[in-house]
Amino acid sequence: METRLSTSRLPAPIRNLWSLPALYDQEQISFGGAHISAELVKRAHNMTTPKRAKERDAKARGVAKARRLSPELIVRLGSTPRTSFRGNPDIFGRLVEDHDRHRALLAMIQETQGRSEQRETLFLELTRELKAHAAAEEQALWSSVLRDPKTTDDARHAIAEHKEIDDFLADLAARDMASSAWLRRFAKLKEKYLHHIREEEQEQFVGAEKRLSAGDLRHLRAVFAERKRQEKAEVEIKRKRKPSLY
Q1: Which residues in the chain are classed under CATH 1.20.120?
Q2: Is pLDDT above 60 for 35?
Q3: How does pLDDT run across 159-175, given as a tens digit for each residue?
Q4: How far apart are the first and last CA of the chain?
Q5: 106 within 8 A of 129, measured Cβ to Cβ
Q6: Which range is least confidently modeled, 31-35, 42-46, 80-84, 241-245?
Q7: 91-135 pLDDT, tens per residue?
Q8: Which of 62, 95, 57, 55 is nearest to 77 (CA)?
């Protein structure tokens, strides 16, 4: 009789490793000081429900997009907030996949050293990604949601936080990447952005979904994808110190 594997007794960070198939080429995976056989992770991976498999694959796609730039870097994602939208075929699923890509880029930048080519490349990609994502999200989703009085506050809150994140990016671009102070300021950006996308995934998207039809949501996904492609091609990198952010 085959022994059924339960991951319920594993530490939470280890349980979450099944969501990153790109790590399976290692014999042993290290995470947060703990070690676990990659074979054990694979077996847990293969015992998920269809919904969990869909969520896992969507998350892996987002992370894989980030890893293309520096596949040798470790991606220390840790646990990510649960959301009902990961893997959905609508605009919210597309936005969450982008969020997972951004989580990975943030984690990878923290693995870089000084003013290295890796740090410069990854920060440039992060800047282009966040600016294009925010602009396309505002045009595809929040412009529609703003018209509904019941979701106006959520839309305005999200847009205001986009502006603050943009200010963080401009400030970091204006500072010396080789300094330890740069990495401390970058940690503030990471904290702010992770808070922002957790709110979107667990609160603001929930409210917006109730005000839009299924047809709207599928159409807005296509609108978002096209607008993001255009925005990313035209991103302007701003450099301006913003001491008031810290």
Answers
A1: 51-245
A2: no
A3: 999 999 999 999 999 99
A4: 59
A5: no
A6: 31-35
A7: 999 999 999 999 999 999 999 999 999 999 999 999 999 999 999
A8: 62
Separation of alpha carbons 122 and 112, rounded Å: 9
| pLDDT band at residue 38 under the 50/70/90 scheme | low
Q: Which residue, chain included where needed, has tokens 């870097």?
A: 73
Identity of the residue numbered 128: R
Pick the CATH number of 51-245 from 2.50.20, 1.10.45, 1.20.120, 2.30.29: 1.20.120
